């Protein structure tokens, strides 16, 4: 624990020293990772898929505020889809605009979490974002998880069926749209993942509020278990369970849980051993307060005692 | 001579005005109810646009479903049903906006209070300085 706090303090002091430069670098890396993921999945335009274009856009992403980063990445995604099919581009635009109007207009600070969801899906650890937001954000932020999942499956479906969409130029544009919508909504894995992440978020969010020592750790452990059980159970029911999936869900779930705890401990280190319970009242209420002190770490002060004085010549 | 207290308070005020204050100071012009009402009204056109977009998406996703509805309950009833759903959605959207902006207002109010306290402290410091100057002149 002391090591974690030490790491946290070092990161904090380093960040405070170079906060501006680090902000640019983090935004640049996030935008580069997101754009590369989109490029790898759906690269229909040679110009947009050019690595120099991606680098230039990432560079722009580094210098714009993080709430506009989402717009840059989604504009890139939509532009790639427009090259493939105008009708598909319009549908993707409508879906993204609806998402923006329904949630991100009110909470633009969840934009980065939204665009990071496909990357976490790609890394097979989508539960990480669900559990992390469940701990640090209000219940309404579950919408970010749901919209992020929809975004990933849209990209995934376009990626898997890219050849079909590209070759069927003679067919009506409308057929492509039907294929996309039916493909995503008819995908059982998508619906199961959506339901599982929602359940994991809600379980972790409500369990961490229980007045009990290590409530966050317990909530994350149960959330991880629920994620693995639901994903494996649904695969068993639909008969799609393979060794790869078994390993992906188990390892992905455990890594997500571990990373959530690690990030949480670095972010908000708690010292449960010094928890205090206070009761008091005023005219209107009785207060039962549980105060958990933040864990602090002080470096050992080493005093060197000289036994023999140096001889001076 | 520099007044260190004044410098400290002024720095806090300036930091707030250049950071979070850029957005939150706009809220300071309104009472909570007025702010939420203004946002509710401004959300109306956006709610209508969102409703139209959702309708368009439903038509794109399943073209047969609206036609089936038209055939089963008749043209007038289908239009009335659609109208009721549309209006209900727009009202729900506007109230959701008001709820979200209410929360935003609450979240920012704490820091706005601290900003107000700092302004009052600054005013007091100025008054004290002025009094000291007047007494010196006399």
The computed structural class of chain B is: mainly alpha
| Helix-strand sequence of chain A | HHHHHHHHHHHHHHEE
| Unreliable stretches covering 5 or more consecutive residues of chain A | none
Strand content of chain B: under 5%
Work out the largest interface and the residue count of each chain.
A-B, 14 and 14 residues
Q: What portion of residues of chain A belong to β-strands?
A: under 5%
The share of residues in helices of chain B is over 70%
Helix content of chain A: over 70%
The main β sheet of chain A shows up as:
2 strands, antiparallel
How many helices of chain A? The count is 14
Class of secondary structure makeup of chain A: mainly alpha
Number of strands of chain B: 0
Biggest β-sheet: strands ordered side by side in the sheet of chain A: 1-2
The oligomeric state of the chains shown is heterodimer
Q: Give the tally of β-strands of chain A.
A: 2
Largest sheet of chain B: none
Global geometry of chain A: globular
Radius of gyration of chain B: 27 Å
Structural shape of chain B: rod-shaped
Task: Outline the structure in words.
The complex is a heterodimer of chains A (313) and B (138). Helix content of chain A is 72%, strand content 4%. With 313 residues, chain A is mostly helical. Chain A has a domain of 208 residues. Chain A has a two-stranded antiparallel ribbon. The termini of chain A are far apart. Chain B has five helices and no strands. In chain B, helix 1 runs antiparallel to helix 5, helix 2 packs across helix 5 and helix 3 packs antiparallel against helix 5. Chain B starts with a helix and ends with a helix. Chains A and B meet through helix 6 and helix 11 of A and helix 3 and helix 5 of B.
């Amino acid at each position: 624990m002391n090591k974690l706090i030490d790491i946290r303090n070092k990161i904090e002091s380093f960040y405070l020293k170079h906060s501006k430069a680090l902000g640019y670098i983090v935004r640049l890396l996030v935008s580069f990772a997101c754009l590369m993921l989109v490029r790898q999945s759906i690269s229909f335009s040679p110009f947009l898929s050019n690595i120099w274009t991606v680098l230039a856009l990432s560079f722009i992403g580094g210098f714009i505020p993080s709430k506009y980063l989402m717009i840059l990445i989604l504009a890139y995604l939509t532009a790639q889809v427009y090259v493939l099919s105008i009708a598909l581009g319009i549908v993707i635009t409508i879906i993204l605009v609806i998402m923006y109007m329904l949630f991100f207009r009110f909470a633009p600070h969840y934009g980065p979490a939204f665009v990071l969801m496909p990357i976490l899906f790609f890394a097979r650890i989508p539960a990480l974002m669900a559990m992390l937001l469940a701990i640090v954000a209000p219940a309404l932020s579950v919408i970010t998880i749901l919209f992020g999942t929809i975004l990933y499956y849209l990209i995934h479906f376009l990626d898997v069926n890219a050849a079909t969409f590209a070759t069927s130029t003679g067919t009506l544009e409308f057929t492509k749209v039907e294929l996309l919508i039916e493909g995503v909504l008819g995908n059982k894995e998508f619906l199961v993942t959506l339901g599982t992440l929602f359940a994991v978020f809600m379980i972790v969010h409500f369990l961490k509020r229980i007045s009990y020592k290590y409530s966050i750790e317990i909530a994350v452990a149960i959330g991880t278990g629920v994620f693995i059980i639901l994903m494996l159970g649904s695969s068993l029911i639909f008969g799609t369970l393979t060794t790869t999936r078994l390993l992906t869900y188990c390892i992905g779930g455990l890594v997500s849980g571990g990373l959530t705890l690690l990030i949480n401990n670095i972010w908000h280190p708690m010292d449960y051993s010094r928890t205090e319970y206070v009761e008091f009242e005023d005219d209107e209420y009785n207060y039962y307060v549980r105060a958990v002190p933040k864990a602090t770490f002080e470096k050992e002060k080493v005093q060197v005692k000289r036994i023999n004085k140096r001889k001076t010549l | 001579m520099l007044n260190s207290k004044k410098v400290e308070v002024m720095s806090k005020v300036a930091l707030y005005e250049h950071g979070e204050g850029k957005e939150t100071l706009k809220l300071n012009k309104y009472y909570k109810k007025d702010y939420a009402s203004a946002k509710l009204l401004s959300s109306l056109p956006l709610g209508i646009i969102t409703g139209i977009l959702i309708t368009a998406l439903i038509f794109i996703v399943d073209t047969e479903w609206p036609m089936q509805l038209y055939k089963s309950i008749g043209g007038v009833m289908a239009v009335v049903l659609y109208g009721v759903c549309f209006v209900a959605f727009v009202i729900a959207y506007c109230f959701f906006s008001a709820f979200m902006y209410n929360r935003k207002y609450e979240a920012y109010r704490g820091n706005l209070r601290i900003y107000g306290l700092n302004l009052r402290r600054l005013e007091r410091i100025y008054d004290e300085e002025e009094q000291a100057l007047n007494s010196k002149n006399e």
